[in-house]
Amino acid sequence: MTTLLYDGSFDGLFTAVFEVFEYRYKDVEILNREKFYQENIFADIHEVITQHEKAERVLNKLEQNIGRQGIHQLLKVYLSEDPELEHLILSAVKQSVQHPGENILQNYADPDMLKISKINKSVGRESHRMTAFVRFEKMQDGVYFAKTDPDFDVLPLIRKHFKDRYQDQKWMIYDLRRNYGILYDMESCDFFYPDEKLDLHQYRQKFHDEEQNYQTLWQRYFTRTNITERKNLKLHTQHVPKRYWKYLTEKW
């Protein structure tokens, strides 16, 4: 068994996939370096150095074989944070190479493809829920701020929806669990990554006067929807680089 360790990033994962083929590994697994605990002392360890050129070569080949819609489905698997996401994506890439031109992601007789389909449905539902229930609160500087705690890492999937819908105001959406967010300033709409966890108490002090009346109601809602057992999960996620956003449009 050869274990490829990567940095948890999107480019890192697809660099690892590239190197599975480059070095012709057969009995292989890909693991996030931060989650790796070596149990098999006989396993060969291959340290992956992230190279976006290798990642892009895999994506370009995938686009030929399964199209943008297929890549979109694999990106949802990546954003699902499923424990088997690396295995599932590698399995899909291998099958797309073995059967070019076939819609391998609809081969539900294959357990990996079936699980990819189920993950896509779950992540899709969560994305839709976020677009329906995100609530913005007006800050003193006129920026509208929303805090979320989605089950999956769906901010990359909902960015376009909010950018298209709220073009006439500045807004921020912040993921409490993953400590990053989206910022729209009426010119650009990009992700931001605070060095430290966002101080929500500090933000509450900046609410616009008209928002104060809604705070009690909001706190009740947030308490009921926030799952205590899931607090303080140290999930390390590296999000999809801007050059791959073309695969994230929710028109599929």
Structural class: alpha/beta
Order of helices and strands: EHEEHHHEEHEEEHH
Q: How big is the Rg?
A: 20 Å
> Which sheet architecture does the biggest sheet show?
5 strands, mixed
Low-confidence stretches: 225-237
Strand content: 5-15%
Helix content: 40-55%
| Average of pLDDT | 85
Shape: globular
Total helical segments: 7
Query: What's the end-to-end separation, in Å?
Result: 37 Å
How many domain units? 3
- Neighbour order of strands in the largest sheet: 4-5-6-7-8
Q: Determine the oligomeric state from the structure.
A: single chain
Let me know the number of strands: 8
Any key phrases for this structure?
252 residues, alpha/beta, three-stranded parallel beta sheet, 42% helix, 14% strand
Question: What can you tell me about this protein's structure?
Answer:
- By secondary structure, the chain is α/β, with parallel strands linked by helices.
- The chain has helices at residues 10-22, 52-80, 85-98, 111-133, 155-165, 200-204, 215-225; strands at residues 2-6, 28-32, 44-47, 137-138, 144-148, 171-175, 180-184, 189-192.
- The chain has a five-stranded mixed β-sheet with strand order 4-5-6-7-8, with helices on one face.
- Helix 2 (52-80) packs across helix 3 and helix 2 crosses helix 4.
- The longest helix is centred in the N-terminal third of the chain and has 29 residues, at 52-80.
Can you summarize this structure?
This protein has about 250 residues and is of the alpha/beta class. About 40% of the residues lie in helices and about 15% in strands.
